[in-house]
Structures are given as structure tokens and as C-alpha cells.
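Q: What structure does this chain adopt?
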Amino acid sequence: MATVTVKAGPRSRPDAPTPRKPDWIRVKAPTRPVYFETKRLLREKRLTTVCEEAACPNVGECWSKRHATVMILGDTCTRACAFCNVKTGAPQPVDADEPRHLADVVETMELEHVVITSVDRDDLEDGGAFQFVRCIEAIRARRPRTTIEILTPDFLRKPLSAVDAIVAAAPDVYNHNLETVPRLYRTVRPGARYYHSLKLLDHVKSRDPAMFTKSGLMVGLGEEKREILQVMDDLRSAAVDFLTVGQYLQPTVRHHKVERYVEPAEFDGYAKSARAKGFLMVSASPLTRSSYHAGEDFQKLRAARAAHLEAAAS
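A:
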């Protein structure tokens, strides 16, 4: 895997005003009945979603299409990342019925693709990895045709056997987000380690080269373009297939401030660079999030791999 040395870039003044949110980042409030039906079903099954907990701007659109990213292992995280709106504290015990409830929702909604993520659970010996396994197995038992995408924490200081168990459960996509450039980890993602996250993605691919791997970045946190391009190179050194790049939005005044709003044309440039570096699939736009349009993007990802293999064989 490649390594990189990054020099410190310029830092904005802490008293500098937050830039005004541009028109291209604004979304409409949800009004469609299916949005409220989806909300009711998730409440009924006592399932938490990252859509709500992380204050995702796309929740209205996604829930209106019966798309939701379920967040297992409770609603309380053991980390305190400066960008994240999920609450921090002492989590509740793991819910043994959670996999069954999740499978109920997948079956009732007849989901073709489901995304499962979780809070960080540093308090658990396996970091919560085996709850991912149980959820995958419960869905496969009830609705085998549903494709499964997981977005896991980093399992820092947890045994590799925990990650291996998830890989052995064979989700269709294994996603773990780097979130930002290494220089900003100390302030943005202080409980994580950049190279550990990179090695996690590399390990997953080494265990199952056929498994799709995916990672995401936020921009607008104070990073420089050259740093984003270097992260792309690092991800490709780990053979990551799919990259997402989206605008960071500050959830509350207590969170890391938005340093700037990146214009759509710059996102187009990141997408072009990522494709040139060899990613099979790229989603880069102001409103892009890890699981935004995940089902449609998974179909495109499979088609891109098939086309790549066909071209390599000809």
C-alpha cells in the first residue's frame, strides 16, 4: 500500500464567519405520504436510521422512495467525531431482536437493496461486528434476493477475526468511510486513525478480492485539493472500487464549522480525477452521501465491473 507525507496546509481563523449556504445545497421538506409510511414502519420495528440521527439532507427524498439506511447497535456512539450529529455517551446493551426486526422491514418493504451501518461500539469486545453478521444472515434467510451493503466503523483495536466474520457473511458491498484527509483527523475524527481505516479496506479486499469495497469523503472541512487527490491514490492502492465525495454540512454550532461550500464544478473535477485513477464507480456532488442512491449505484457498479472484465479479456 502507498504511504504519503502531508505538510500542514493553511488554517482558517476560528473567529472567521461561516459561509452562507448556497442555493445548490438546499433541499425541500418531505411531504409525500410514503415518507411518513416509511417513518411509521421504522418506528414500529424500533429501528434507528442514520438518516435521522446524522441529520442527512436527503432523508425526504430517500424515505419517499422507501430507501433508508438502518443504524444498528443503538443510537449512542462511543466516539465524538467533530462532524457527526449522532449522540455520544454510554450505549445501551445490544438488542438481540434487532436482526429479526431489520429482516421484517426488508421483507415488508420488499427492498431490493439495503444499507446497514452502525455507531462505533468501542465498549464491545468485537466492536459490534457480529451484530452485522447476524443482520446479514437474518436478511438472507428471509429475502435472499435483496443485496446488502454495509457501512462499518473502523473496529480500532479489535481482533481482525471480527472483520473476517463480516467478510465471510458475504455482504455485496463493504463500505468504510475515510471521511477526510489525514491532516485533519486530529480535529475532525480524533478517535480514529487514517492508516488503520485504509488498512481495514485493504484487508477486506485481500480476504475477498471479488467483494466490492467503497469509501467516502467530505469536503469543505479545510482540506486542500491536492490532499483529496492523494487520498484517492491511497484508496486505489487498497483496490477500493467505489468513491463518494460530498459536501460537509455543520449539524450544530458545537460541531466543526464549514470552511467553504464547494461548487458543483469542483465536484465534477473530483469525479473526473477519480475515474482517471481507476475507480469503477464515483459519486461526487454537494448532496452525495455514502448511501445516497445506493441501490441504483450498486447496479451501475456491477455493470462497470462486468464491462471492465470484458474489456480486459478482449
